[in-house]
Design a protein that fits this description.
It is built from 6 helices and 9 strands, in the order H-E-E-H-H-E-H-E-H-E-E-H-E-E-E. The strands form 2 sheets. The chain has a 7-stranded mixed sheet with strand order 5-4-3-6-7-9-8. The chain folds into 2 domains: 57 residues, no CATH class; 145 residues, Rossmann fold. With 222 residues, it is an alpha/beta fold.
Length: 222
C-alpha cells in the first residue's frame, strides 16, 4: 500500500519540484502556462532532473521544523537583482523579507544608500547563516534579523516586502498585508502570484523565465 501525503502537501511538493527544475534552467516557460524541457538529452534527462529536484526537496524538508510553511530554496542572483530593481528602492525604505532564508535579498537591498532591512525567518540555522552573510558583506549594522513566524512578526513599518513563498502561503498572507501595511508599500513576490490580486508589474527572469511580481498597497485595500 502506498500512503500519499495530504493534498496540500502534495501541491506544495509538486510546486517545489517544478520550481527547482525552472531555477536550474531545465524547464523553460514558453507560451501561457506551458513549459518545455531544456536540458542535454531532452526527455531522456527528465529522471535525472526530477532526482535533483527531489534531493533539494528532501534536504529542505529535513531542515524545516513543524511550523515552516515553505521549504527553503535560495533565490537566484538574477532574481535577486530583478526584485531590487522592480522595488525601486530609495533612501528611507525599510525592506522586509518574510521567510528570508540566508538573507541574500535584504543584504542586496541595503547596499542601496539609506535603505534598512529586516529579515524574518523561522529556521534558527538560516538566521545564523543570514547574520554571517551580512557580516561578510559588511552590512550587518543595516539589517535586523528576527527569528519568528511570518504570520506573527510585526510588519507595520515596512515600505517594501519581499516574498519567496508558495502561492497558497501568499494567499494566506495577503489579508495581513492589506490590513497592516501602509498605503504605498511595495510588495514583490518571486515566482508565485496572489490569486485575483492582479500585479501592477511582472517581469520574467531567465533562465527558465521565473516571474517577479509587484503590487502596491492602496488605501482601498485597508
Amino acid at each position: 500500500m502506498v500512503v500519499l501525503p495530504p493534498p496540500h502537501a502534495r501541491r506544495r511538493n509538486l510546486a517545489l519540484l517544478l520550481h527547482c527544475a525552472i531555477e536550474t534552467g531545465h524547464l523553460v516557460k514558453t507560451a501561457g502556462s506551458a513549459y518545455s524541457l531544456d536540458a542535454p538529452g531532452g526527455a531522456a534527462a527528465l529522471p535525472r532532473i526530477l532526482a535533483i529536484a527531489m534531493l533539494a526537496l528532501a534536504a529542505s524538508t529535513a531542515r524545516a521544523d513543524s511550523r515552516r510553511d515553505v521549504p527553503y530554496v535560495a533565490t537566484s542572483p538574477d532574481a535577486v537583482q530583478q526584485m531590487i530593481a522592480l522595488a525601486q528602492l530609495r533612501a528611507g525604505d525599510v525592506v522586509y523579507d518574510l521567510g528570508c532564508g540566508d538573507g541574500r535579498i535584504v543584504i542586496a537591498a541595503v547596499k542601496v544608500p539609506g535603505v534598512r532591512g529586516v529579515c524574518v525567518e523561522i529556521d534558527p540555522a538560516l538566521v545564523r547563516l543570514g547574520r554571517e552573510e551580512a557580516e561578510k558583506a559588511g552590512v550587518a549594522s543595516k539589517i535586523t534579523f528576527v527569528q519568528g513566524d511570518i504570520f506573527e512578526v510585526p510588519i507595520e513599518d515596512a515600505t517594501v516586502v519581499m516574498l519567496y513563498l508558495l502561492r497558497e502561503v501568499n494567499l494566506r498572507l495577503r489579508p495581513r498585508l492589506w490590513k497592516e501595511l501602509r498605503p504605498g508599500t511595495r510588495v514583490l513576490s518571486n515566482t508565485f502570484d496572489m490569486g485575483d490580486w492582479q500585479p501592477e508589474r511582472q517581469v520574467a527572469v531567465p533562465p527558465g523565465s521565473t516571474t517577479i511580481y509587484r503590487w502596491t498597497i492602496s488605501g482601498a485595500r485597508r
